[in-house]
## 1
Amino acid sequence: MTRRDWLLAALAVAVLALAPLALNTNTLTILLIYGLLALSLGLVWGFGGILCFGQAAFYGLGAYAYAIAALNIGESTVPLLLAIILPALLACALGALMFYGRISDVYLGVITLVVTLIFFKFLNGAAGEVYRIGSARLGGYNGIPGYQTLNVPGLPDEYITGDALYALVAASVVLVWLLCRWLLASTFGRVCMAIRENELRAQLLGYDVRLIKTLLFTAGGAIAGLAGAFYASWAEIVTPNLFSLAQSAEIIIWVIVGGVGTLLGPLLGAMLLAWLKIALGSQQLVNNMVVSGAILIVVVLLLPSGVLPSLMRALARRRRPAAAPVTAPDGGAPSAHPLPVDSKRLRRAHRG
């Protein structure tokens, strides 16, 4: 962790504190939830080189785990923990099967996407009375409504909604970002980036590549599960659409537009595109995937590394001092590629 990281965190807190002056907290809360979800994939893909097409599986599982546990327990503390732990366990098991099985990157993306679609298909058909976990009915395509939303730990009647929920989600996003920065600054994070650059070389250096990728994949699943729990509390209903193909594709678009290889890029990209989707929500023709797909094409063609990395490079070029002009020997215009001058050889020639 550097001083710059703490300054960015302080700036983020200040911006989030002032944001309700521009947008209502209900909208800001869902934007931050989407940002947290994009951050989970940005960590796994951008710093581990693991392109997961099924990040929505952990997101949806976190939401469903929270809703089912809240209906059975009636208090949100344990359901919130389960919403983080269960997706992390699924990510750990799935990652171990893929990485220790030496599945190639193409098949890894297919497997994660298939797992997501299995959840989607199963929950859409789980509409009968037999599909019940304790007192919670899965509800099929109608989903699960009417569960306990987030409350103060130990006080089931003290609900965390509105401005309080926004403050909780905002604080969680900043905390998760700081934890990710700390993780990437550690030896573990540096090894993850080494694996991303050259997996074989990292393995030859003696690192257990399969274990490290599994642990990073697990961390991404836990963050996505937390985002799912926050979504369940915000929406007060969970449906199989959380596992849909559109949701899976949207997460990838957020990360690409924001910038792969950064943490802030996916977070900001998700918030920007989600806000645009909400602003165009009444226009069904241009809603959601049409706008997101168009923005993706423009960014890939004009800013291949993403919006945030391109912006940072542009700012760095503006800060860099311009080189002093080189005058040509004949007093004319400076050469575009001036040759290096050997001063010792010039002095010897002058003496001669």
## 2
Amino acid sequence: MFALCFLGISNTYAQKIYRGNSSYSSDIVCTYNQGKVYRGNSTYSSNVIARFDGTNLYRGNSSYNSDILMSFRNGKIYKGHSMYDSDVLATWRENKLYRGTSPNQSDVLFTYKDNKVYRHNSSYQSDVLLTTSSWVHPLILYLILFP
């Protein structure tokens, strides 16, 4: 579930994302700092997993269009740099991420509220999948949970 780790877009300080309801340094899944996503608590260049520019997520430290893994436009997460409806992986609406373009409550992948990512449509503490140190872009949360 946590094979790939990516974080949000704020560049003012290193953001952390933790497993479950934790805030312990031993439970840090990824660190995001100045547009780069690192494994665990690292900020070493050898541990860069991806680079995020706010719209496109690139493999490693790349900035080539051919290395775009996913993109976010108009509330939709697309495979690669595509804009075709058939390539929509998920849709972001009202702090919930839905499978594909579905508007159905049964297709909620996760709910993001108060820096907590909850399983499906839940808001129970027992259903916290991830805890973030600050707001994290929905594309990044999708990638962490569905690599």
